[in-house]
């Protein structure tokens, strides 16, 4: 007789944690004593966290950690349930928390993990006056060793088919040679200057875009607009400062297309 260790399943429709085991080839579901609401929210950079319940791995956590719009519940087969976060690379125990069947709600306190330590929030400097401060953390697929980041002012128009046509790009460097896996220093963004059009019927639009440091080509399709990330840029009317900490994850989708997933850690 061979008994396999208990494992927990995340059921997508309800995100219930169901305690079950396999015995002699048959699935055995343990008696569930209670279902209790469960929630957590956090952010992870640097190293991936593994989440365990009673010693059984449930998921990997990297980037934004949330349970979305579902209403998850914990399935208690005993009076207590132990949750742990471990560093995926080193297997070091980073955090653990016990949940009790007696508690009405089971919530993991909001957390930030920087790859070394776990804290209750992401720390950042307060912008002074109308300064716009920004730093960057870049995660890239293999093959992209470093990026250049700039404020690009796009001179553009829309053609008869309502397609964006870029006729000129004025680039204002922010950072060069940004390597994956490390925070940059904080930079102060300046409002883009007012430019004169190079032809009639065009307008201007500023973006923060990324180039391959080696080839000097825009990361996505060598296109400034497609290689831009969503973040706030000050203008000449900006009166209040702001701090942004942008985590940029370069990813490849199922169609082999490159794209960015971008989050501002100040918002978490």
Outline of the structure:
This protein has strands spanning 7-10, 16-23, 26-29, 34-53, 56-66, 73-76, 80-87, 93-100, 106-113, 118-119, 132-139, 147-158, 164-178, 187-189, 203-212, 228-229, 242-252, 258-264. By secondary structure, it is mainly beta. This is DUF3823 domain-containing protein.
Structure in words:
With 268 residues, the chain is an all-beta fold. The protein folds into two domains: 7-119, no CATH class; 132-267, no CATH class. It contains no helices and 18 strands. The model is unreliable at 1-24 (pLDDT under 50).
Features:
mainly beta; DUF3823 domain-containing protein; 18 strands; 10-stranded mixed beta sheet; single chain; 2 domains; signal; disordered N terminus
Number of domains: 2
Poorly predicted tracts of residues: 1-24
What percent of residues adopt helix (DSSP H or I)? under 10%
Q: Please provide the count of β strands.
A: 18
Report the radius of gyration as a whole number of Å.
24 Å
Distance between the ends: 49 Å
Main pleated-sheet profile: 10 strands, mixed
Instruction: Give the integer mean of the pLDDT values.
Output: 87
Shape descriptor reads elongated
The run of helices and strands is EEEEEEEEEEEEEEEEEE
Structural class: mainly beta
As a percent range, the share of strand residues is: over 45%
Total of DSSP H or I helical runs spanning 4+ residues? 0
Keywords: Signal
Protein name: DUF3823 domain-containing protein
Signal peptide: 1-19
């Amino acid at each position: 007789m061979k008994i396999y260790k208990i494992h927990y399943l995340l059921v997508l429709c309800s995100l219930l944690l169901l305690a079950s085991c396999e015995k002699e080839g048959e699935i055995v579901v343990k008696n569930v004593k209670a279902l209790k609401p469960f929630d957590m929210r956090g952010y992870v950079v640097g190293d991936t966290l593994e989440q365990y319940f009673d010693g059984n791995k449930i998921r990997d956590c990297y980037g934004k950690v949330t349970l979305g719009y579902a209403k998850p519940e914990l399935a208690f087969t005993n009076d207590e349930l132990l949750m742990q976060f471990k560093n995926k690379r080193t297997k070091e125990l980073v955090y653990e928390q016990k949940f009790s069947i007696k508690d009405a709600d089971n919530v993991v306190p909001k957390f930030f993990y920087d790859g070394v330590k776990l804290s209750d929030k992401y720390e950042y400097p307060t912008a002074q006056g109308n300064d716009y401060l920004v730093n960057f953390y870049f995660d890239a697929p293999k093959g992209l060793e470093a990026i250049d980041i700039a404020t690009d002012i796009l001179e553009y128009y829309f053609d008869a088919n309502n397609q964006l046509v870029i006729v000129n790009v004025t680039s204002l460097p922010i950072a060069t040679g940004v390597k994956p896996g490390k925070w940059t220093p904080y930079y102060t963004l300046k409002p883009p200057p007012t430019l004169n059009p190079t032809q009639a019927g065009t307008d201007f639009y500023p973006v923060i875009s990324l180039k391959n440091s080696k080839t000097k080509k825009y990361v996505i399709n060598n296109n400034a607009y497609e290689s831009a990330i969503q973040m706030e840029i000050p203008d000449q009317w900006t009166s209040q400062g702001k701090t942004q900490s942008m985590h940029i994850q370069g990813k490849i989708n199922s169609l082999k297309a490159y794209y960015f997933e971008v989050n501002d850690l100040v918002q978490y």
